[in-house]
Amino acid sequence: MTDRLPHEKGFHVSWDQLHRDARALAWRLQDHGPADTGWRAVVAITRGGMTPAMIVARELDIRIVDTISVKSYNHQTQTEPRVIKSPDMDVIGDGAGVLIIDDLVDTGRTLDVVRKHMPKAHVATVYAKPMGRPMVDTFVTEVSQDTWIFFPWDMALQYVEPYRGRD
């Protein structure tokens, strides 16, 4: 069936699931930092990366947290990515010992822009799609390219008609 509604090919993530998956990401990252110093900072890609970055920073006891904002979507349409806010580059430098955290890598275009700012950083996302997967060093769950991920900040609880008609 190709005439699916978004929720029929969607991957719905609750707050509880996002929290569990972000903690799983932290567990995967704990032994990948520089051996002598460990991870020294987290840079969240706003906005979606802010919640997982906060959870990872808490779990790994990382106190330096900054953001980079890359605009690459206009509603649900991808556009040319551009940085609209950079982290403090005096602190972040080339990214050595830095974790870049985002909620999702889709095509990898956003991460391509971010990696140019911090080429030595370790990029981690909670979710990954196949096209963007090569841009990520660590992730938790892969979903198909044609799946739309519905994050908890994008949803509201509401009634949905059943799949089969009612009498």
Give the structure's gist in a few sentences.
The protein is an alpha/beta fold and 167 residues long. The protein is 23% helix and 31% strand.
Please, could you describe this protein's structure?
The protein has 167 residues and is an alpha/beta fold. It is 23% helix and 31% strand. It has four helices and eight strands, in the order βαβαββαβαβββ. The protein has helices spanning 15-29, 50-59, 89-92, 109-117, and strands spanning 10-12, 41-46, 65-74, 77-85, 98-105, 122-128, 138-142, 148-150. The strands form two sheets. Strands 4-3-2-5-6-7 form a six-stranded mixed β-sheet, sandwiched between helices. The protein has a two-stranded parallel ribbon with strand order 1-8. Helix 1 crosses helix 2. It is globular and about 65 Å long. The protein starts with 9 loop residues before the first strand and ends in a 17-residue tail after the last strand.
> What fraction, in percent, of the residue positions are helical?
10-25%
Number of helices: 4
Unreliable stretches: none
Biggest sheet record: 6 strands, mixed
Gap from first CA to last CA: 24 Å
User: If strands are numbered along the chain, what order do they take across the biggest sheet?
Assistant: 4-3-2-5-6-7
Radius of gyration: 17 Å
Number of strands: 8
